[in-house]
């Protein structure tokens, strides 16, 4: 071994460990010790390190991406073209840990699939995007994910979104070939074709999800999904409440059901268009199914739909309407009868003990009325739900949980 080689080895061995450390706030990238993301720079580093796209990440702080536009931030996951060797999806796990990423702004008119994550075959969960502004001009634009090829999105939300694109445009996901569960969107979504409040094009499953986004497009425009395209596509136990404007194939829930099944869903938003317009679904192919689903004929201003059952506003706020179609109001849905439309059970804060939806002095009065009760039982039968931790008693631990939900509304 030459003297020069020995010197080089000595320099390498003596390098401090920190100089080789991953550019994050800690962790090893494993499920047991995920990379910790606590700053905007940490998040930026994910996009700059494709070798880490099979790793596990955990968001530990709310992050503000103001000032990190498309000139400074790379999308996570890469898509070039169908069958391209350059495609490199994010195939790891990103756990938002209940935190929020705010003010993500991205303009990309050149590439297919635009979003915080461009191409995903892994899992994204427990994440909220606040005030994202995303614009694309090709296939697949979504605030969170442009193209969900495999994997899943679970317990994610987009609030005050401004998402616009050409076709396959969704408030959360542009094109979804896999599953979206317990997720929701709010804001404005606009495009030309296949435009949906939550997902633009559905080839997989959307379940236990909702959208309150205002949706504007031309063809195949829906409050929840623009179009369901795959034979195995499913929209299950979900709803849409936003206004929907389009021209052809316009529906309060789904614009075009080309294939698949819609089951136990509803829509209430105002719907307008010129051809094939429905309160629930605009267009339905013969082999597609729309089952046990409803729309509000008054709020939607639509008396007809190619699938589903139309009901008045009063009927849509009555539990008997949904019981007649075997909806599950034990594990899936809940309703403040005569006051609100049904909502998904997971949307109700723990401290929301009584109607109307949301945590207010009405709920605090129930907590106070049951204060120091000792006979609540594990099933929580006798304390009006005030035993929030199901310990059998209403005490300071329940008060702390209640305080955490104070003034919270449904998502």
Task: Summarize the structure in words.
- The strands form four sheets. The protein has a 22-stranded parallel β-sheet that branches. Strands 6-10-13-17-22-27-32 form a seven-stranded parallel β-sheet, with no helix packed on it.
- Mean pLDDT is 91; it is low at 7-20.
- The longest helix has 11 residues, at 3-13.
- Helices cover 12% and strands 35% of the residues.
- The protein has two domains: 21-316, Pectate Lyase C-like; 348-411, Type 1 dockerin domain (Orthogonal Bundle).
- It is globular.
- By secondary structure, it is mainly beta.
CATH architecture of the largest domain: 3 Solenoid
**Proportion of residues in helical segments:** 10-25%
Sequence stretches where pLDDT stays below 50 over 5 or more residues? 7-20
The count of helical stretches stands at 6
Q: How far apart are the termini?
A: 67 Å
Q: Major sheet: size, sense and barrel closure?
A: 22 strands, parallel
Rounded Rg: 24 Å
| Whole-number tally of structural domains | 2
The CATH topology of the largest domain is what? Pectate Lyase C-like
Structural class: mainly beta
CATH classification class of the largest domain: Mainly Beta
Strand content: 35-45%
Mean pLDDT: 91
Overall geometry comes to: globular
For the secondary structure, the number of strands is 37
Describe the structure concisely.
The chain is mainly beta and 411 residues long.
């Amino acid at each position: 071994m030459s003297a020069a080689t020995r010197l080089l080895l000595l320099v390498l061995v003596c390098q401090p460990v920190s100089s080789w450390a991953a550019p994050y706030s800690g962790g090893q990238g494993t499920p047991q010790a995920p990379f910790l993301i606590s700053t905007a720079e940490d998040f930026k580093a994910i996009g700059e390190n494709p070798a880490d796209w099979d790793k596990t990440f955990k968001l530990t702080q709310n992050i503000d991406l103001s000032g990190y536009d498309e000139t400074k931030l790379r999308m996570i996951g890469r898509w070039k073209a169908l069958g391209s060797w350059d495609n490199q999806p994010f195939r790891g796990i990103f756990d938002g840990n209940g935190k929020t990423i705010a003010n993500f702004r991205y303009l990309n008119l050149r590439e297919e699939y635009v979003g915080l994550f461009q191409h995903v075959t892994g899992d994204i969960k427990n994440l909220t995007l606040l005030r994202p502004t995303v614009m694309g001009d090709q296939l697949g634009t979504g605030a969170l994910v442009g193209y969900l090829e495999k994997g899943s999105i679970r317990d994610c939300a987009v609030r005050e979104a401004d998402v616009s694109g050409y076709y396959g445009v969704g408030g959360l996901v542009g094109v979804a070939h896999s599953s979206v569960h317990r997720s929701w969107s709010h804001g404005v979504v606009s495009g030309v074709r296949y435009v949906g409040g939550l997902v633009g094009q559905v080839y997989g499953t959307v379940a236990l999800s909702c959208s309150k986004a205002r949706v504007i497009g031309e063809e195949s425009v829906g409050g929840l999904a623009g179009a369901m395209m795959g034979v195995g596509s499913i929209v299950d136990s979900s709803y849409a409440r936003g206004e929907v404007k389009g021209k052809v194939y316009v529906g309060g829930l789904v614009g075009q059901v080309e294939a698949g099944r819609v089951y136990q869903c509803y829509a209430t938003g105002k719907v307008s268009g010129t051809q094939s317009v429905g309160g629930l679904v605009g267009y339905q192919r013969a082999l597609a199914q729309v089952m046990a689903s409803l729309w509000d004929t008054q709020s939607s201003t639509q008396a007809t739909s190619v699938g589903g059952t139309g009901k008045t506003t009063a009927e849509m706020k009555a539990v008997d309407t949904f019981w007649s179609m075997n909806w599950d109001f034990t594990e899936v849905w809940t309703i403040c009868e005569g006051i609100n439309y049904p909502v998904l059970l997971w949307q109700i804060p723990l401290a929301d003990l009584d109607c109307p939806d949301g945590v207010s002095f009405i709920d605090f009065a129930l907590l106070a009325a049951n204060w120091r009760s000792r006979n609540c039982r594990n099933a929580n039968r006798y304390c009006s739900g005030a035993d929030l931790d199901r310990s059998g008693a209403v005490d300071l631990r329940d008060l702390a949980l209640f305080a955490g939900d104070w003034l919270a509304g449904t998502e």
